[in-house]
Amino acid sequence: MPAHAGCDFSRAESLYQKGSGLARQEDRLLSQSQKFLDDVIGRIDSAAKKLGLDPNVHKTLRTPRRSLIVTFPVKMDSGDVEIFTGYRVQYNYVKGPSKGGIRYHPDVTLEEVTALAGLMALKCAVVDVPFGGAKGGVACEPKKMSVDELERLTRRYTYMILPLVGPEQDIPAPDVNTNYQTMSWIMDTYSMLRGYTVPGVVTGKPLQLGGSRGRATATGRGLAYVTENMLRKLGMGIDGATVCVQGFGNVGMNVARFLHENRCKIVGVTDMTGGIFDPKGIDIRGLAVHSEKEKGIRGFPSGEFIPDFEEANRKLLSAKVDVLIPAALENQITESNASDIGARLVVEGANGPTTRGADEILAKKGIQVVPDILANSGGVIVSYFEWVQDIQAYLWSEEEVNQRLKSLMTGAFNQVWEFADRHRATLREAAYMLAVDKMAEVTRLRGIFP
Ligand code: NAD
Description:
Elements: H1 12-15, H2 28-51, H3 55-61, E1 66-75, E2 81-92, E3 98-104, H4 110-126, E4 132-139, H5 147-160, E5 170-174, H6 180-194, H7 215-233, E6 242-246, H8 250-261, E7 265-271, E8 274-277, H9 284-294, E9 304-306, H10 309-318, E10 323-326, E11 345-347, H11 356-364, E12 368-370, H12 372-375, H13 378-392, H14 398-423, H15 427-446
Parallel strand pairs: 3-4, 3-5, 6-7, 6-10, 10-11, 11-12
Antiparallel strand pairs: 1-2, 2-4, 7-8, 8-9
Helix pairs in contact: 2-4, 2-15, 3-15, 4-15, 5-6, 7-8, 7-13, 7-14, 13-14, 14-15
The structure holds nicotinamide-adenine-dinucleotide.
Nicotinamide-adenine-dinucleotide (NAD) binds next to helix 8, strand 7 and helix 10.
């Protein structure tokens, strides 16, 4: 195994300080991802303050531990070589191996990956799975690449981040634009370089390679549990509740499907190809089949279709519905559009869809928000189950997986709800306070090395 080939372990300290960042030009993308990171750190700071946390422990929780930047060549189908930049950030591993998805997207930056890694650490703490938080990503345009190019990119990226990953160290999973095939390539590359098969190095694998039953749908299933719990708590019925979903990928499609099966009415869906609206309720099964075949919801023959996704998102976010589920990307509900939100309840399927400034506006409007670190934790919970099954070389039934998922998620939901009630906090404040408190406790017990 090559030691630290092409690695740059760097700048963990400077990253989180507002205004410092990298010595490169500020542009729209960087300032957006820096804002995303500032929001995550700002929310940790605020939770630490409310908890009266020891400043020395607080310092350790607001900084990422390892940040790796890799630049690597990939041979394209044309015969030309292109250079890609990728990242892997281990935000915190105080509770166990770090864990988090890998994203392929043109907007991936170190700041975005760090923010997402921080969210993973908080999420694992909220739901009590024995992982720290990590995230990875490659800045690329996966939709414009062939399968062969994506395979070469994945294998080379895996090789470049090899010093960080491993079943006891850091375990990747799918995120935006990566899936079970990407995980299979990572698992195979890692195993080839080790010399033996290591299923536990990634989660979100196909069943045949040691994947878990129920993993592919887990984030959506968990979101549906949380949405239904919230509707009950708020005294709103589930049957016929109106729902809008932004994003129709793994998370958006599955949550829409589960809520639809449980008799909610999905009246709006958007993705990068546009938006579909139907007050009578969209046939989600049909839309899922169409979207799989056509690589997007464009062209589905029902309801009103808006081809411009930005216009469709404006309509979706302002729709007067019971529930809005942002399940696409971060920074979607911001200071500039929060006052337009028409839903009574927002359940965050995506990571970081609501900015800190928007939180305040939504709270003033009386809109409840179930935060990402609780709402979308179903994915990492079943990833944890997959990792446990891999280590034991023993496969659980789908029923067992779903039951355990429901039990962990319901427990975490009730804990956050009661904490918020007791401390007159929003659900996000409560979830952050619980997560920070749990991570602080472990940090105190372990002490600061050396
Ligand atoms: P995905 O790639 O499967 O799907 C993303 C979807 O969002 C696609 O339908 C895409 O067209 C759509 N989209 C992208 N930008 C959009 C925009 N501006 N407006 C409307 N639609 C847009 O990704 P995913 O795995 O479903 O992840 C979605 C979000 O959920 C991400 O924030 C991810 O970090 C988070 N998340 C994913 C998991 C998981 O298990 N996959 C777990 C927890 C959280």
